[in-house]
Amino acid sequence: MLSNGYKNKNSITFELKDIRHQISDISKPYLLIQYHQNSKIKHVWMNGDVLLPPFYKVRQHSNKDKVALAGENISIRDIPDEYDFIGYFNVPNSYQFQSEIWLISRNIELNLKNGTWFVFMTPHYNNEKVLNELFGKNELEIIDEELRGTYILKSNQALDEIHVILLILSFIIFFIVVNSWFGHQSNLYTILYIHGYSPASLCAIILKTKIFPYIFVSTGLLMVVLITIYYTYPMWDSKWIVYAITLALFYNFLFIIIGLYRVRFDIVKKGGKKY
């Protein structure tokens, strides 16, 4: 998002040439960016709890309803007097952000003199529904970004396929490594079983010495990483946190299943027998 003008994959780009019906006041969160093509000044309308791109403040508080953010490569003299300049974008690797001014307001007052191009984003799962609620019967011309050759290209959707492939490969590698790790002590499990340890006792040993320490350490590291990323590199929404936690829970569950299965495999399938 930070390298393509803060557009996410579910954003809607459209052109509005005439406002024939009043813009509705809705409660759902959204971010609406209005601009002229090739303009460095963008009017941004915020509603509800939404995130802005990372920025560092030059003033801590503002009494105005309208504030402005700017890149370090553009003059803040272009900011209108009714806007309080509060900080610079903290996205050093994005030329686009470093060359833009965002005029931000929570009170939506659309004026097509400020631009007829819009980008609409919302963390709500049904972005089209929220967009239609906001603009009502106004005629919107949806822009296909692929045809314009900018920002979010369909060709970049190959990245999603690569992510799936990498996820499958990571699953295979995880399974092989964990199975091999437990397998190194297969003879020990068999010896303990032969000398009187029950399968339940062996499972308890595996849980205490291998599984629980792994879950504790991996969960702790995951929480540290999630908290660090959340506060140092904020994203549009928090869905990625849910995905990360779900994936971690899946791997923990898989770890437990492999460990307990190895106990059964080593003492039963290999013919371990008590004297």
As a percent range, the share of helical residues equals 40-55%
> Average pLDDT across residues?
81
Number of strands: 9
Question: The biggest beta sheet, please?
Answer: 9 strands, mixed
Note the overall shape. elongated
Distance between the termini: 65 Å
Name the assembly state: single chain
SSE pattern? EEEEEEHEEHEHHHHH
Proportion of residues in β-strands? 15-25%
The chain-level structural class is alpha+beta
Cα Rg: 27 Å
Low-confidence stretches: none
Tally of helical segments: 7
Word description of this protein:
The chain is 43% helix and 16% strand. The protein is α+β, with helices and mostly antiparallel strands and 275 residues long. A 9-stranded mixed β-sheet has the order 4-6-5-7-3-2-8-1-9, covered by helices on one side. β2 (30-35) and β3 (41-47) form a beta hairpin. α4 (158-183) packs parallel to α7 (239-269), α5 crosses α7 (239-269) and α6 packs antiparallel against α7 (239-269). The chain is elongated and about 85 Å long.
Helices, strands, pairings?
Elements: E1 12-15, E2 30-35, E3 41-47, E4 55-57, E5 66-70, E6 84-89, H1 95-98, E7 101-105, E8 117-121, H2 127-135, E9 141-142, H3 145-148, H4 158-183, H5 186-194, H6 199-232, H7 239-269
Parallel strand pairs: 3-7, 5-6
Antiparallel strand pairs: 1-8, 1-9, 2-3, 2-8, 4-6, 5-7
Helix pairs in contact: 4-7, 5-7, 6-7
In a few lines, what is going on in this structure?
The chain has 7 helices and 9 strands, in the order ββββββαββαβααααα. Strands 4-6-5-7-3-2-8-1-9 form a 9-stranded mixed β-sheet, covered by helices on one side.
